[in-house]
Task: structure prediction
Amino acid sequence: MGTWDTGPFDNDSAADWCGALDDAAPGERLAMIRSALAGAADAVGFLDDRAGVRAVAAAAVVLSQRPGAEPLTSPYAPDFLLDGGSVVIPDDVAALAVRALDRVAGEDSEWREMWEETGDAADALAVVRDLRTALSG
Result:
């Protein structure tokens, strides 16, 4: 995992996913977000790290589009969002994001396992917990 910080976009897989989301046609972006979230939420067995980091990034995108949310500021977030663009996120996607984040932070997750190996799991889990809390509210 090429990770440089605990933020939702601060690793290679998340940055790649954000680049693909940015390059996608506007009409395809919601499907990509749903797919990333479902890839974690509906995974059976051990959750792959790449699926986990994509889900965390997608959840951060979902949160950024909620009314009153803080705008994204990470230089690794999708450029169209940093430039003031948006994507319409239906209400049911927040619940999918919460399920995905629960799976990412769960015991059967490579994402969690890799963070525990670094000794920085508390900070990374706090990011996921904060996203989950904001999306649940």
Q: What stands out?
A: The CA atoms of residues 44 and 131 lie 23 Å apart. The chain has one domain: 12-136.
